[in-house]
């Protein structure tokens, strides 16, 4: 399986602009710029897209891990926060924090804890990131 996205950048770093598109068409010429990455400009940025990918991947991985334990969650909500820090002459994504809230009526806390740990380790996006990944997971019964 292969998935593709593309980006076009025009101009210098601080005054240039770019657009990002995905083969699925969900993103089509979606604007990004220095301001959307390092300030509060309108548009997206690579770190926001990584956060979205990690939140979505983790939620699906957790659903799969819970399914292995015979548990079907009512709802999994995941927020991923990506930290971009100055690193020598450039920047690095140094950490991702996952805030997870899962509703499982009558949920088993031990099974939940195992599933969240396994999902964090096994999520393909977690595996590709060279960053510290932390997590706070709440079970709502």
Automatic annotation (TrEMBL):
Gene Ontology MF annotations: peroxidase activity
Domain of life of the native organism: Bacteria
Record's signal peptide: none
Pfam families with a match to the protein in the record: OsmC
InterPro entries listed in its UniProt record: KH_dom-like_a/b (IPR015946), OsmC/Ohr_fam (IPR003718), OsmC/Ohrsf (IPR036102), OsmC_Ohr_Peroxiredoxin (IPR052707), Peroxiredoxin_OsmC (IPR019904)
GO biological process: one example: response to oxidative stress
SUPFAM superfamilies the UniProt entry points to: OsmC-like
NCBIfam families assigned: osmo_induc_OsmC (TIGR03562)
Protein name as catalogued: Osmotically inducible protein OsmC
